[in-house]
Amino acid sequence: MHGAGVRLTxxxxxxxxxxxxxxxxxxxxxxxxxxxxxxxxxxxxATQDNDALIVRQVHxxxxxxxxxxxxxxxxx
Length: 76
Description:
single chain, mainly beta, Nuclear Transport Factor 2, Chain: A, flat
């Protein structure tokens, strides 16, 4: 991504641990070469394996309104 001029900055990560398991969630921002900023959502799960943390799951997504995804206005 660096070669394409894309960079990421972190938000305010929330991290929790229990035993050998670590959970993290954040709302980083992706910065594009044209100065567009794209808000992202990130979750991560890692487990301890001897002296290392092994990432078991990562999810990175771009949020979109339901109406945009479904191409119709939703009513309550």
